[in-house]
Amino acid sequence: MNRASLRTGLRRHAGFLAAAWLVAAPATAAVEGRAPGLARAVDAAWQRAVEARHAEGETVRAAIGQRIARSFAADEPALTYARTDGQWYGGSRAAAGSETEVALSWPLWMPGQRGAASRAASADVGWADANLAQARLEVAGKVREAAWAIAMATAEVGLAQTRVDFLKKLADDVDRRVGAGDLVRADALAARADALEAETGLADAQRELQARQAEWRVLTGLEQMPDAGEIENESHIDVDKLVAAAGTPPAVLAAEQAVQRAEGQLTAVRRSLGAPPELSIGTKREVAGPGQPGERSLVVELSVPLGVTARRSQLRAQAQTELDAAQAELALARSRHVAELDAAKRAIALAERQLDAERQRMQMLGERSQLLQRAFATGKIDLAELLRTLSASAEADHSLAHRQAEHGLAHARLLQAIGMLP
């Protein structure tokens, strides 16, 4: 597709869509301040998004896990205190003896285990960061879709209002001609009926716009509606250059990081014997009885798990399963990205052809409508034929507005597919 002609066509219709937006935009937007740009709207939606809280929580958890993996001990150290009174030696004074022991225990890393845990923790941090970026892009996609839904509904309101104004004027003209004896009363009734039908259509379009605006407020928490000019500007971006320069999209990057994370976890499990070895260093004081001198001794104890339990096998099987699932998800993410990118490019090309065809159709019907209006004014055609022509012309306007919004939405979805934030 010729991108130069694409950008030229977009510039031709950008003014129409922005004007239609401004016609139906609520007056409160001008009072409360400038319409929010997409970047600001994404920030606002991110603050309200449930997935944002999950993603941010994962980054905090991963960062804490990385600090733990870099620590001296494999787990939290523990302080133990033990005192025993009673018979240890036998004899008449044995019951008065006592033993007191205080020790500090450190869970230890096995050789190579700390490095494996650190690498696994770093991979976990990378996965959390990539998952955060992907979650933010998904929120941006919702904002873009909501903005274009408002654009389409706003264009509908503008077109419906234009049709109402025209049909009311036509009804007034018919009334005058009925009074002059040029037309019959039935023509006046038909014209008024069409004007009332147009008002009903306007009310439906306004209700749809209000619904889309309510969804925007729920999504972003903003009272101001999106900036029509900015979402139009996204349609003017040279997507070919963006696609050529784009790196790995967040969805694929998150899947790649998930594989690295699963590999790190599997390596860490293989290096582990289950519970970590534990080193205890303490002191013990023994007193045989009242008045007897106490004996102090240093106690050093090392406990090493054998690592032959079924639990270790279970952990390894679980880690291997997670790795297999992550690898399958990565392959699926790459295939999905290729398909989405190809579909987005095809959608833009199709939308461009439809937009050009609809623009030509609207121009021809507009010219025909003007000719028939002049013919009606001179009495050469009846009102029914004129109304049919006007209805076809209004339908063409309606269809063009939809094609323009669909074309812009196709661009927005391509930007989503390559991972570009507003």
From TrEMBL:
It comes from the Bacteria. GO terms for molecular function: efflux transmembrane transporter activity; porin activity. InterPro entries: OMP_efflux, TolC-like. Belongs to the outer membrane factor (OMF) (TC 1.B.17) family. Residues 316-368 form a coiled coil. SUPFAM superfamilies: Outer membrane efflux proteins (OEP) (SSF56954). The keyword Membrane applies. Residues 1-29 form the signal peptide. It comes from Pseudoxanthomonas helianthi. Keywords: Cell outer membrane, Coiled coil, Membrane, Signal, Transmembrane, Transmembrane beta strand, Transport. GO terms for cellular component: cell outer membrane; efflux pump complex. This is TolC family protein. It holds the Pfam family OEP. Its main location: membrane. It is found in: Cell outer membrane.
